[in-house]
Each structure stands twice: as structure tokens, then as C-alpha cells.
Amino acid sequence: MEPNIGNVICDLRKKQGMTQEQLAEAVGVSTPAVSKWETGSSCPDVALLAPIARALDTDVNTLLSFTSTLLQEELLGVVKEVQQLAEQDGAAAMGRILAFTRRYPTDTQLRFQLASMAMGFPHFYCWPEKTTQAAWDFAEQGFEYVRQNGEKKLWPTVTCMLAGLLLNRDKLDRAESLLDSLPIMPMASQMLYALLYQKRGQPEKAWEQARTQMLSGGQTVLQSLAVLAASDAPDAPRALEAYGAVAQALGYPPCLLNIQLAAHAIEAGDPEGALEKLQAAVRELKDEAAQAHPLWSTVSPPTASYYQSLSRMLENSLRADPQFQVLRDDPRFLEVLRLLAPDDA
Questions:
Q1: Is there a single domain that holds both residue 146 and residue 238?
Q2: How far are the Cα atoms of 233, 240, 246, 262, 274 from residue 229, in angstroms, in the given order?
Q3: Which domain holds residue 218?
Q4: What pTM did the predictor assign?
């Protein structure tokens, strides 16, 4: 049974560290009136709901215990609709994201999905700067809402994603604070779940949990190796070799690997090597357009539009990144840009 408004007011007031007298003063009523609300002997007037919500740092929906949520199938429909819009019009996609948020303000699973899309889509689909910043503002607020109101087991993941977004926006102190708040886990929970399902004779569920851990863990290993390879340490070349070996073993798309290797070739003062890797990446992008990513094939195979978006993202990065300035007068580099252009994707 959902709590009545008096219980909600009492719980929120105590969380804010407020007394009944302080809440009464904030909304312009007597202390006995607040006491009656909390004991259930009376209810606040409708006109007071907004002031009470503001005083308790919440919203009216939460105050009224409104917890409407989407079914899983409906949630997947929302994700698909927003993604289709995101490929064509970032502003329209954000309009739908905001509309869904207003319609289901307390659905933390929906808010998490919408915040995740708002964080990733701007870069992937090359949204304009104004739309990108609006999307990232929404993502920050959404992740923070889920951290405060979502399921406890989702908290570490949301905290990591919010910290990553803040790092990308150069909000370093806040990102560090979030990272410091995370517990150090000696063993990922996905693997424990995988062992649990395996012992229960549920091989399909065990496979799914292990595959999820492999994907997330593989990304972590690759990111760590990329940082090591970009350093000035004597073993940086070995880290780069290891990056290539791990990426290949995990079925990482060759085009993405070659893009990474091209960047390292530039840093190493090898423009010829960088051009070779970029040319290989373009060839692979064209060849892979109809193929499924080996590790994702059982979940959601990338479509041709995935690789078209990847081509646009790479083209924009090559044009804007000063790192590739040394290549911009080379006809082979100009040919790479031409092949990546949307009209030729």
C-alpha cells in the first residue's frame, strides 16, 4: 500500500533535517497544522502542495506518492523512438526525452535510459553544440535523480556514468568526489550472479551474465591500455600491442581499433603509419556495414545506420582534432574524409 501524504511529508521533513516548526514557517501555516498532516487527521490544502514540495526539496508527484512507471515493453518502445529521432534531429529527440520525463517523472528506469541516451547520442550522432550541452545538462540531472531515488543496486553504475559525464565536461572536482564515494569491489557482482545461475542449472542466464561482464570488463581493460599506450612510459609500445591483442580477442570492431592505432601513430611521429590505419578503418567501415558485432550479435546487431553514424563521427573528429593537422594537406587524407562524408556513407 502506498504511503499517505502525511507519512511522505514526515519522512521528507526528517530527511531535510527540518522541524515541524521550520516547515510550518516555510509554507505559512501553524505548527499544529503540520502535526495534523503528519498524523493523518487532516490533509494540506491543494494550494499548499507546491510550497510544501519546494520546502522539502521534492516535487508534487513525489509528495502525492505518484509512482507511475512503464512496462518493460513500453520502455523498449521509448528507447527505439528516441533513437530513431536522434539519428535525424537531435533537438526533436531531446523534445521527446523531455516529454517522456514530464509524463513519467518518478520512473527511475526510464530516467536512467533517457539520461544514458542524452549522454551518448550527441557525440555519436554529431548533434550541434547547443543541443549537445542541453542534452548533457539533462543527463547530469537525470543521473543525479536516479542516484537519489533509484534502486540501490543501480547506484554504483549510475555514479560511474555521472562521473564519466562530468569528466567529459571538465567538472573534475565533482567527478572526483563521486569516484571517491564508490566502494572498491574485489569481484564484479555479474560474475557472482553468473556462478549462481550456473549452480542453479540455468545456463542461459549464466551465459548472459558472464557475457555482460566480459563486455564491460573488456572495455575497462581496453581503456586502461589506451591510457598506458598514450603515456611516456618505456613500456608504452607494449601496452599498445596488448591493446591490439585484447581488442582482436574480444571481437572489437577492427575499424575502431585502427582509429585508435592511427591516433597513436600520430603521437609517435609516424604520419605514414597513421594514414595506413585510417585507410584501413574506412575500408572496414564499408565492409562491416552489414555485419553484426561478434559480441553483440545475440543482443542487438548494429544496422547500416550504426556504421553511417560512426563514419560521420570519425569524419568530424578528423576535421576538428588538431592532432591530425599534419595530415590535412595529404591527398590520401582528403580521400579518407571524402569516403567518410554522409553522402557517400
A1: no
A2: 8, 5, 13, 12, 15
A3: 187-252
A4: 0.60
Please tell me whether residues 103 and 171 are part of one structural domain.
Answer: yes
Single-letter residue type at 165: L
Burial of 221 (0-12, 13-18, 19+ CB in 10 A): middle
Residue 13: give its domain's CATH number: 1.10.260.40
- Could you tell me the three cell numbers for 285? 567501415
Residue count (the chain): 345
Q: Is the dihedral of CA 73, 78, 79, 84 positive or negative?
A: positive
Residues 169 and 108 in one domain: yes
Asked which of 131, 154, 181 is the last residue of a domain, the reply is 181
- What is the rounded CA–CA span in Å between residue 260 and residue 263? 5
What mean pLDDT comes out for the span 144-150? 92
Cell 499544529 belongs to: 32
Q: Are 144 and 181 in contact (CB under 8 A)?
A: no
Cell numbers 543527463: residue: 139
> How far apart, in whole angstroms, are the C-alpha atoms of residue 322 and residue 168?
18
pLDDT tens track for 97-115: 999 998 888 889 999 999 9
Distance CA 294, CA 342 (A): 25
Same domain? 166 vs 194:
no
Cα–Cα distance for residue pair 94/101, rounded to 1 Å: 10
Q: CA–CA separation, 254 vs 330, rounded Å?
A: 24
Measured between alpha carbons, how far is residue 301 from residues 76, 237, 274, 290, 306 in Å?
Answer: 16, 33, 29, 9, 9
Nearest to 307 by CA among 286, 293, 324: 286
Residue with cell 527511475: 108
Task: Identify whether residues 77 and 173 lie together within a single domain.
Answer: yes
User: Could you tell me which residue, 283 or 344, shows the higher pLDDT?
Assistant: 283
Residue with cell 494550494: 47
Residues 245 and 258 in one domain: no
- For residues 299 and 252, the model is more confident at 252
Write the CA distances from 62 to 21, 50, 75, integer angstroms: 22, 11, 21
Answer yes or no: do 162 and 86 share one domain. Answer: yes
